[in-house]
Design brief:
heterotrimer, A mainly alpha (152), B mainly beta (464), C alpha+beta (174), B: 464 residues, five-stranded antiparallel beta sheet, C: alpha+beta, three-stranded antiparallel beta sheet, 20% helix
């Protein structure tokens, strides 16, 4: 996972003159293709979101993954919960996004990857109110370490 | 009668509309043939308070009145016309004008400019929403009389509107977007109320610029059954909906639907939204319009294999949804939780996938007769927006097809939308690809009339 | 490397037989170089304008002005290639939508399935030229990422819709 992340970090830095898809082929095309087909349309090629409209995954996803509450939130947001991806595919794509767009700089900050079983346990109870849950989760993450930004 | 002629110097000056004159030598005054010694004159009165334009030559008038609108028509000799320009609006009474001879009709009476009001609505009226795709900021709702084939008026509906009617049908509500500079500029989303007796705007609520900008369905703006609440779906692309107070003209709340879309109202305080998984989310509101509770159904259709069109048709106790492959999903919304009847098929097993429903407004139900009318076409995957080459009619009790009406599509193109009137001599309106509207006898399928060039892209119809 | 094997198998069979993995990666990168990374932020797009393959609007009669063009298998709206843009560039003065819907279309010329991004170009009134609505794989609004009725300009400040592009993102693996 970390190795793949290295390759993708490289490919992202040198990105603008080479194809996203071509350069990242070796890093795991399947989760990347799933990201393109099922997530990228709204979250963007750099997982940057759209200010005020779509939350970013970059500099955010791994931070949510630090706590059980944050992980549960991520698996229950509409884009994950309602996604046509299987539980295993969803776990793979989330792990890929975290490694690609929010890889921790210090090894000590690495987060546990999602497993298909964990996805199965959480995703089938969709959240009632996404925004208020997000705010509450971020607040509690901020109290214990790195947290995504509340505003987007 | 005064037989003296009016000297040209005192004659009314000719003032045309917007300051230019117009001469019409084609009209012929037989009075003047006998009395005007070969010279003719023409009076043209512009309505609405604008200056009257007259050509006066030698006119044997007995009375010259100011302030009474009159018109008389005769022809004018060029020289006389040129000399007869007068600055003021002098209106000539025809009251004592030359009497009609046996062969010449009397002059037309004065007219008063008024604004039409609509009479009591007929069940054969139809609202046609013109999506105006080539100029999408300028959509409009057109009112048409299916008996007299007259256009009765229109309501402007902005950009990618949603339209619906109040429970008492006295108000047409429109949720839409306007940009400050027409085609660009600050976006304002607004819910506008229109009085159905005048087609005039009667109020508005400015909402957050989040109105779901999409093609029209009945679920893009909708009232609660008692008219107390108004719901508007938001997509930003995050999904939620607004709860509005139509009486106070205010926004009450925004309710997150976690990806489920549209607002299907039921009862006084329930809102249904369709979820990606095929489930129906039902949010129940408290007396103030805020969320009291929510519940999700089991998936009621297969969103992967046979998705339903979102253009639901009102039934006696809820809505019916047709699927891409022709399954009819009737949903009873009358109780606290929606109840899903066993789906039944529009097509025989052998035809499944070959004949499909399609278009922009797929199907219409006559509730009292218990009939479903739906446009059908031959086609495969990707043809769900193709219009129909036939209209099939079903009995809602027996689920049997009772009629099959091929539509002649050479001139009009296929049928994109259908809507049946709810009376006992019903009309089925068909909106065609080319913008024409068909008026069919809904009992026999006979095409009574095709209103040509009615609109650009008529993609939704409602019974006013 | 498992997924790289799958890529070889499905789209680059001949190449895989002849080259090592490392050079294949480079070759693939070169083959797909120039395909824009989408959706690009405006600033990146502007920086690439001088070399952008989409900078020129096509000549009349170009294949990309026809609704049947393979890339348009699920497009809905006016073709930007008829409006001063191209199938992969917005007309002058319009703003690309940052959100888009992404589909897969089959290219009969090379028999591959490509992932394409249907961005809208926004901020001006309807182009009005070359209307095209195809719906392969399109789904109603509750499958928002597969819906082309909804206005994909919705997240733009000036969200009126002008035209649509169809940009290749890459080859779809099976």
């Amino acid at each position: 996972m970390h190795g793949r992340a290295d390759r993708c970090q490289f490919c992202l830095r040198g990105l603008w003159l080479s194809s996203f898809l071509g350069a990242c082929m070796g890093a795991g095309a399947s989760p990347m293709q799933d990201y393109m087909l099922y997530c990228m349309g709204c979250h963007g090629a750099q997982a940057q979101g759209v200010p005020g409209k779509v939350p970013p995954l970059a500099h955010a996803l791994s931070r949510f993954m630090r706590t059980a509450e944050g992980r549960d939130y991520v698996l229950r947001v509409p884009g994950a919960s309602s996604s046509p991806l299987t539980d295993a595919q969803l776990a793979d794509v989330l792990n890929w996004v975290a490694a690609t767009f929010d890889a921790p700089e210090r090894p000590a900050d690495r987060v546990q990857s999602f497993t298909a079983a964990e996805v199965t346990r959480s995703r089938h109870s969709p959240l009632a109110s996404v925004l208020s849950t997000r705010t509450a989760v971020i607040k509690s993450l901020a109290a214990s370490g790195q947290a995504p930004s509340v505003q987007y | 009668m005064d037989k003296s002629t009016v000297p040209l110097a005192r004659a009314s000056r000719v003032i045309g509309n917007r300051g230019h004159t117009r001469r019409d030598f084609s009209a012929h005054c037989r009075i003047c043939e006998t009395r005007c010694s070969g010279s003719h004159h023409r009076l043209t009165i512009a309505a609405g308070g604008t200056l009257m334009r007259t050509f006066l030559a030698r006119i044997p008038f007995s009375t010259l009145l100011i302030g009474t609108a009159v018109s008389a028509t005769t022809t004018v000799a060029p020289l006389a016309a040129a000399a007869s320009q007068v600055p003021t609006a002098i209106l000539v009474a025809a009251a004592n004008a030359p009497q009609a001879s046996a062969s010449v009709p009397p002059p037309l009476p004065a007219e008063h400019l008024t604004v039409n009001k609509l009479g009591p609505a007929s069940p054969h009226w139809i609202y046609v929403l013109d999506e105006a795709v080539a100029n999408e900021i300028d959509t409009r709702l057109l009112l048409f009389d299916g008996d007299t084939y007259r256009r009765l008026g229109q309501i402007g509906t902005g950009f990618l509107p949603s339209v619906n009617l109040s429970p008492d049908h006295r108000t047409t509500v429109v949720a839409t977007t306007y940009f400050a500079r027409g085609g660009h500029g600050t976006r304002t989303d607004v819910v506008e109320f229109n009085d159905n007796s005048t087609l005039g705007k009667s109020g508005e609520i400015v909402i957050p610029p989040k109105h779901a900008q999409t093609l029209p369905t009945l679920f893009g703006v909708a009232y609660s059954s008692d008219g107390r609440f108004l719901y508007v779906p938001y997509v930003t692309p995050a999904a939620s909906f607004g709860v509005l107070d139509p009486a106070k003209k205010s926004v009450i709340a925004e309710i997150d639907t976690a990806g489920c879309v549209l607002v299907i109202p039921s009862g006084p305080n329930r809102v249904g939204s369709i979820c990606e998984s095929g489930r129906l989310l039902t949010v129940t509101l408290d007396a103030s319009g805020h969320e009291a509770s929510r519940a999700s159904s089991e998936p009621f259709f297969d969103a992967d294999r046979d998705p339903i069109f979102v253009q639901g048709m009102p039934t006696a106790d809820g809505y019916a949804f047709v699927s891409f492959l022709g399954e009819v999903h009737e949903v009873d919304f009358s109780r606290a939780q929606p109840a899903f009847r066993t789906p039944w098929s529009l097509v025989a097993a052998t035809d499944k996938g070959a004949w499909r429903p399609g278009g922009e407004q797929v199907g219409s139900i006559h509730r009292a007769l218990g009939r479903l009318y739906v446009q059908m076409h031959r086609g495969g995957e990707g043809t769900h927006k193709d219009g129909g080459t036939e209209i099939w009619v079903f009995d809602l009790k027996t689920h049997q097809r009772i009629a099959r009406w091929p539509t002649e599509t050479k001139q009009t193109g296929t049928v994109l939308a259908v809507q049946v009137s709810q009376d006992s001599a019903p009309i089925l309106f068909a909106a065609y690809e080319n913008g024409d509207i068909g008026v069919l006898d809904a009992l026999t399928g006979r095409v009574k009339h095709i209103e040509q060039h009615f609109s650009q892209t008529p993609w939704q119809m409602l019974n006013p | 490397m498992h997924s790289l094997d799958r890529v070889f198998e499905n789209s680059t069979r001949a190449l895989a037989k002849r080259t090592s993995r490392r050079s294949l990666l480079a070759t693939l990168g070169r083959m797909l170089t120039g395909a824009a990374l989408l959706p690009l932020l405006p600033i990146e797009r502007g920086a690439r304008a001088a070399t952008a393959e989409g900078g020129q609007t096509p000549a009349p009669g170009d294949a990309s002005q026809a609704c049947e063009y393979w890339k348009y298998c699920a497009i809905d709206g006016y073709l930007c290639s008829c409006c001063g843009g191209s199938s992969s560039s917005c007309p002058p003065g319009t703003q690309p939508s940052p959100i888009t819907w992404i589909g897969t279309c089959h290219n009969p010329a090379d028999k591959r399935d490509y992932i394409v991004s249907y961005n809208d170009c926004c901020g001006k009134v309807s182009c009005g030229n070359c209307f095209c609505n195809r719906n392969e794989g399109e789904r109603p609004m509750y499958r928002l990422s597969r819906n082309n009725d909804v206005n994909w300009c919705m997240a733009n400040t000036e969200s009126d819709y002008h035209c649509s592009v169809s940009v290749i993102l890459g080859v779809a693996e099976k």
